[in-house]
Structures are given as structure tokens and as C-alpha cells.
Structure to design on (279 residues):
């Protein structure tokens, strides 16, 4: 593992400790793009031991976004990470390769490698590897869903699906992602549910899921999420819960996580605490 560029106590009063720009993929065969893009930041809570960890993937349609910088729609990934870390958990914020420079399934493979890094290393920083959660917004929600539903990605990096305590996709796409469709020369609203679609892998046995989406989400996104939850329950899955968050758009459902009393922030932290108690 490369040494992080920095490992320091935050200057702010909340005392969040930051490990910045840790490389989560190693090897001589990595491309230059992988070497520069496949890095993560770790936000460690001020106090406590054996805390839970949330591996968080930013949004941006699999084409844009960053583990730290603000996006045009005001979803500030670094602020989200800090806010959740203040709730007593570690947050591993991940960069992954983006389309069109990388294409399906490269970004999902990167996501799996980042989860493996967290599983293998979080105990070194005080976390409990048994309390490992995956989450993300929009494209990050899609990555979360793919890792939870298509088990071969985690298996390929030496993990068992049971190593994951829970999954928290926020406004993720459950059908074949529109960027994947674009890579295939298809339009954004073509409907496909092949092996690039989380819904393709509906089954009864998965880690616990908390599926969150907005009442004013992007076109068809709320309906997709509700459909996914209904199908999973129909298949006999007793570990999934879905919640539509009122008075939220596709951007604000994530952007308001920075607010201490936000419904999504509360739901995420409550879910992690509840599931962690069973681990």
C-alpha cells in the first residue's frame, strides 16, 4: 500500500482525522490513469474504537465527479464525508475511473478494489472490519447496487458478500446505467436490464439494503428504485427497505446530508448503527 500523502488531525473543532490520497490499487500493470485516479480519502471519527466504516462513491453519471471537490449541482462530496464522520463512523471517499476514458465494467472493478482496501486496512486506524458498509449517490448509488447484487466483483478482489454489513444506494440507477447505454451507442432512455443492471440480479439473500430516493428525483429514477425494492421483496428478500425522501431533488437528496438534522443523514447513521449492533 502506498503511504497516504497526509495523515493529520483536522484543524476544525470536530477533530476529524484525514488520510488523503491513498492508492487502493497496486501493481506494475496499472495504467497511468489508474495510478492517478484510483485513490481514496479516509475520514476518521474523533473518538472511539471499533467504529463502523462507510465506503462512499460520488455521483456524476459515471462521467464526472470527485471524492472531494464540489460538483455543479452543489453536492459537496468532502462535506458529506465530514458530516457523516462527525456522526461517529469512518467514511472512505473514493475516486474511480470515469467514462469515456474507462468503460464498463472498469468503474465497478475500481469500486470493488476500494471496498477491499477498506476491509483490509480500516482496523489499522481503529475501525471494525466487520462493520463495513457501501454507499453512494447517483452514479455512486449505481456502483453500490452493482457491488451488492452482482457478487462476482467482490469475489474477484477476495471478498465474500457476507463481508459487507449493509448497502446504502441513494438515487442510484437500477436498470442498465444510461452511461453504459451510451457506451453501446444507445439512447439514455432505452430500457435494458442485462448484466450491467442491478435489477438483473434480484434475489432473496443479500446484505441489508437501505434504498433512498427523492420525491422529485430525475426522470424515472424514483420509480426505478421503488420497482427494485418491490421486486426484491417479491423474491423473498427480507433485508431491504426503501424510503422516498420528501421535498428533495436528485441533487438535494445528497447535498443536504451536510445538515445535522437532515432526514437522509439520520437514516444513514441509524441504519449503520442498527445493523452494526447485529455484527
Amino acid at each position: 500500500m502506498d503511504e497516504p500523502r497526509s495523515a493529520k488531525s483536522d484543524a476544525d473543532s470536530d477533530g476529524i482525522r484525514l488520510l488523503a490520497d491513498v492508492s487502493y490499487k497496486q501493481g506494475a500493470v496499472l495504467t497511468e490513469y489508474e495510478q492517478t485516479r484510483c485513490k481514496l480519502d479516509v475520514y476518521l471519527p474523533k473518538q472511539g474504537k471499533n467504529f463502523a466504516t462507510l465506503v462512499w462513491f460520488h455521483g456524476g453519471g459515471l462521467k464526472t465527479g470527485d471524492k472531494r471537490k464540489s460538483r455543479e449541482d452543489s453536492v459537496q462530496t468532502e462535506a458529506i464525508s465530514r458530516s457523516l464522520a462527525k456522526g461517529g463512523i469512518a467514511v472512505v471517499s473514493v475516486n474511480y475511473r470515469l467514462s469515456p476514458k474507462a468503460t464498463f465494467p472498469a468503474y465497478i472493478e475500481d469500486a470493488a478494489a476500494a471496498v477491499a482496501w477498506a476491509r483490509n486496512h480500516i482496523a489499522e486506524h481503529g475501525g471494525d472490519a466487520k462493520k463495513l458498509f457501501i454507499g453512494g449517490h447517483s452514479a455512486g448509488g449505481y456502483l453500490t447496487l452493482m457491488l451488492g447484487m452482482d457478487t462476482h466483483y467482490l469475489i474477484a478482489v477476495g471478498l465474500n458478500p457476507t463481508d459487507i454489513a449493509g448497502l446504502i444506494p441513494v438515487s442510484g440507477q437500477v436498470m442498465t446505467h444510461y452511461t453504459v447505454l451510451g457506451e453501446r451507442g444507445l439512447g439514455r432512455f432505452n430500457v435494458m436490464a442485462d448484466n450491467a443492471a442491478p435489477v438483473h440480479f434480484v434475489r432473496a439473500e443479500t446484505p441489508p439494503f437501505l434504498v433512498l430516493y427523492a420525491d422529485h428525483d430525475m426522470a424515472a429514477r424514483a420509480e426505478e428504485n421503488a420497482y427494485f425494492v418491490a421486486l426484491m421483496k417479491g423474491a423473498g428478500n427480507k433485508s431491504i427497505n426503501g424510503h422516498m425522501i420528501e421535498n428533495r431533488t436528485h441533487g438535494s437528496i445528497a447535498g443536504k446530508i451536510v445538515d445535522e438534522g437532515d432526514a437522509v443523514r439520520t437514516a444513514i447513521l441509524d441504519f449503520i448503527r442498527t445493523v452494526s449492533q447485529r455484527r
Q: What stands out?
A: The first strand starts at residue 6 and ends at 9. Residues 106-121 form the longest helix (16 residues).
